[in-house]
Design brief:
Blueprint: H1 3-22, H2 41-60, E1 63-65, H3 77-95, H4 99-102, E2 105-110, E3 113-119, H5 120-128, H6 131-145
Parallel strand pairs: 1-2
Antiparallel strand pairs: 2-3
Helix pairs in contact: 1-3, 2-3, 2-5, 2-6
């Protein structure tokens, strides 16, 4: 089985779960955050959408220079929900490569400083795909604190029994 045949169904599943979270975002709370060090809710949701772009960047470039990185602008809930499927499709297309592509090195730098360099597959598994559950869990905490029902993720949610 090709690596892409393992990863693409994972993207479909993550997208289904992410859609449930995005659809519950309250438009009037996008600037809300539970702590001064926390991202605002809208920025956190936009970052989850950005992960699809990281998949594309990992598979279609040799690396990224974080010195030039700018986080995505926070859009309306409607815009974020609308971006989800096109972002997911772009990621799926980028993943549809020969296995040999997955073993080519990819690097993250900040100017001349190399932050990390590893095969694309390792980058995807350890640095990119794990971001979906990590940041959705943060968003779930935001929802809990605001009494917004938390969607089920990899099993039932206390709010969806």
């Amino acid at each position: 089985m090709k690596i892409s045949e393992l990863l693409i169904p994972e993207i479909h599943n993550e997208t289904r779960i992410t859609a449930a979270f995005l659809k519950r975002l309250p438009q009037d709370k996008l600037d809300w955050k539970p702590h001064d060090k926390s991202m605002p809710m809208g920025m956190l949701a936009a970052h989850i959408l950005e992960i699809y772009g990281w998949i594309v960047a990992t598979m279609e470039t040799d690396g990224i220079d974080m010195a030039n990185y700018r986080p995505p602008e926070v859009a309306s809930v409607e815009d974020m929900v609308g971006q989800l499927e096109p972002n997911a499709q772009a990621a799926i297309k980028a993943l549809d490569k020969d296995d040999s592509s997955y073993w080519q090195d990819w690097s993250m730098t900040h100017g001349d400083h190399v932050i990390m360099k590893m095969p694309r597959y390792t980058t995807l598994r350890s640095m990119v795909l794990s971001q979906f559950p990590h940041h959705r869990a943060q968003l779930g905490l935001y929802f809990r604190l605001l009494d917004i029902p938390v969607p089920a993720s990899y099993g039932p949610s206390a709010d969806e029994n």
